[in-house]
Design a protein that fits this description.
The protein is of the alpha+beta class. Helix content is 15%, strand content 43%. Helix 2 crosses helix 3. The radius of gyration is 25 Å and the shape is flat.
């Protein structure tokens, strides 16, 4: 987890002190304060990480614990250099040694999420800026509030409430400058999307195929029309699985998974008569993650000599079964991770599996640099 520099004795000394602190009785109090602070309000400050109103060695311990429990957490990167290493601990320790312990005056930031002027309760709101990282949920009238923000620029983002709403903005920007601030209302819209697609045999639409669509409380069956088309309405922001079936046929792919973030059109699913042969298939795939933390329910698309879609599992893993050919894999951005590195993987499959096609997610406003 750390990048150690053998000639930097100060770094080694600071790390040793921090580790020793983990075994002192006083650090038990720091751990308790840290956990209570995290569980109650989800707030972390770049200096007063324990939330006890002062900056001291307990905050060094809390920084170690936070980086261990949540390596994606922005406050673990104390130096804002894009990674967590010994320099973050060094910076905090030097501030303590220099007596740079003062905390500036803080102010609240408030706002509301509404649908047709009615407050929407239970929307998870995330705030990130100079004070650290915050999360809260809207109350019964749709209001949210972030307390104790220091002067500076903040990003405020709504996160999907269950599967049922979309929002007119992905992110609001707020500037705290010596006073409290009220943000404009965020408009929520009840999600109602359409999923459609086509099933074809030798390029011609196949009529009468039963298509089962499941996910987010939906379990419905539709039948393809004379053009091989199917359609399901009123779907939410959620992952769904599409499984075609028809006597005397097999299908490639046998299951298509999609994460609905708007109307979605499934490219041709190929129907093959029983007794027909499928080419040899190989597995291509990998992991979608943030730092060392996997990202689940992220939509991944396959294009090229075969088209398919899937979503990552609880471990952030995805895979496709494909014959020899050329393929491009694309990750569809999600609200909290708008940038992925690399943006695509292009591979040539020639008789073997390829399972190291990983994607690293950056938060909205992040960078691949």
């Amino acid at each position: 987890m750390f990048k150690l520099y053998p000639k930097t004795f100060l770094n080694i000394f600071i790390l040793s002190v921090a580790v020793l602190c983990l075994f002192t009785a006083s650090n038990l109090n720091a751990l308790i304060l840290f956990d209570q602070h995290r569980d109650s309000v989800g707030v972390f400050y770049k200096q007063d990480i324990t939330g006890d109103g002062s900056v001291n060695i307990m905050d060094v311990v809390a920084l170690l614990l936070l980086s261990r429990d949540d390596p994606c957490h922005p406050v673990a990167d104390f130096t804002d250099d894009g990674e967590y290493d010994i320099r973050d601990l060094t910076s905090l320790m030097l501030n303590i040694m220099k007596g740079d312990l003062s905390l500036p005056e803080a102010f609240p930031l408030v706002g509301r999420v509404v649908e047709k002027d009615l407050g929407v309760p239970g929307v998870l709101m995330v705030c990130e800026g100079p004070s650290g990282w915050f999360q809260t949920a809207t109350d019964s009238d749709g209001y949210y509030r972030f307390n104790d923000l220091y002067d500076g620029r903040y990003k405020v983002k709504p996160v999907l409430k269950s599967y049922y709403y979309t929002f007119d903005t992905e992110e609001l920007e707020a500037i705290i400058n010596g006073d409290s601030m009220t943000l404009p209302d965020i408009q929520a819209t009840y999600a109602a999307y359409t999923l459609s697609g086509r099933i074809a045999e030798d390029g011609l639409g196949l009529e009468g195929v039963l298509v089962t669509v499941t996910g987010a409380g939906v379990d419905t069956v539709v039948v393809t029309d004379s053009l091989g088309m199917f359609r399901v309405d009123s779907l939410f922001n959620a992952p769904y699985s599409i499984v075609p079936s028809l006597e005397d046929y097999i299908f490639d792919p046998s299951t298509w998974s999609v994460y609905m973030q708007g109307d979605s059109l499934i490219q041709d699913i190929n129907a093959i008569r029983a007794g027909g042969t499928l080419p040899d298939l190989y597995t291509i795939g990998g992991m979608v993650f943030c730092s060392v933390q996997p990202l689940s329910n992220v939509q991944v698309l396959l294009t090229g000599d075969k088209q398919a879609g899937t979503v990552t599992d609880a471990g952030g893993l995805y895979s496709f079964s494909v014959p020899d050919g050329s393929y491009t894999i694309i990750v569809v951005p999600i609200p909290l991770f708008q940038v992925f590195n690399p943006s695509t993987h292009t591979v040539e499959v020639q008789g073997q599996d390829i399972t190291n096609l990983n994607f690293y997610g950056f938060g909205a406003g992040g960078s691949e640099e």
